[in-house]
Amino acid sequence: MKLVDPAAKRLFILDTNVLMHDPTALFRFKEHDVYLPMVVLEELDAGKKGVSEVARNVRQVSRFLDELMRDVAASDIEQGIPLDTRGLVEDIEADHGGRLFFQTHTLNAALPDVLPGNRPDNSILATALALQTEHPDLTVTLVSKDINLRIKAAVLGIHAEDYFNDQVLEDVNLLYPGISELPEDFWQAHSDTLESWQKDGRNYYRVHGPLVQSWNVNECVYIPGEQGFEALVREVGEDSAVLETAIDYRGSRHTVWGISARNREQNFALNLLMDPDVDFVSLVGTAGTGKTLLALAAGLTQTLEENRYREIIMTRVTVPVGEDIGFLPGTEEEKMTPWMGALMDNLEVLTRSEVGGDWGRAATNDLLSNRIKIRSMNFMRGRTFLNKYLILDEAQNLTPKQMKTLVTRAGPGTKVICLGNVAQIDTPYVTETSSGLTYVVDRFKDWAHSGHIILTRGERSRLADYASDVL
Fold this sequence. Notes:
The protein is α/β, with parallel strands linked by helices.
């Protein structure tokens, strides 16, 4: 292996899980060089079979490697293969100048006696040590999603990093909140150029000033206090914005399927969920903040009372909290039923009516079962949903690629609701900053037909609120 200008370049050794997580990782290191140990190729070969997302990613990596090695002579592999995407990846420049190296000969490096055996991780560590010895003037970095491998590399004096390119944000606290508080002197500061009018029973205000540059369309703004002000940003221009007063769903005058908002965030969430011009809504919050209840109540109202949608479709990632209970018999809907406890619990609340007695409740449940469908994410590819109200529960466990696959299922007249808590991720190698939920919130925040709210106050019970705080 011969490196060009080693002082200006770094050599990144990729672990298998990086490529399994992101097949385009080969092209994400710009002008720097990438090295693939032979044991990584062996692990990729072992993981190519199946219909899982990991197996699909492995097969995509193999196709990338095959395309890169096309028309490359065997004698040129030792010199490194240019990492030219050749149009393989749309969002990456064609050629950054980096090269791809394979392990073409045995590297002499002895691992300490504390790391015996022939495990793949130890082979990768041995390769990294050998490359450091052969190229002392070069910065060799091991890139892995495996925390334990990075710890062992640090113990051996090998520079190791996580794969950061898939991270949407540097810190999850920087996630777009969807709601902002206005200063107390907001009206006084903007009174000179303020315009106001009424339309369809709603008040509208056109505001001018530097503050509007920080707003996004459908962002929720408020002034706290007894005579407070709550509105949604409907238009954002160069130096002006249009605010529309929010509907107050807290009282009995405006309820959604018998449900009233209990706090400001829930009220804003219902405004977005009930708005036919908002095609995508994401609700993020801890347990007990009312995400599923609000989404279902709005869906039932718009499906059964307003006939805006034909039916409600609910799906979620089937990641167990404890040990997997194994094979589940029955149809697709019957297999998904154990995962839909949140749906059943909230339907029980929404259908709790004393009118009609047991017979009336049974009739209501039969009606709802015909208009609410439970679907598995495993069978979503190629589908198109027309005039549906689609709820994606536990969306924090999705990767960005899976999120794109699901959201693009929406056809004309379909509304997509994403629910999740980025603090409760159960999928391996998905973090708070690389979750598909974080990804879609960040990418959709500037779109005029999307809305987002972070629910912060738990409303389940005083026991649940206290447990969330102290446990």
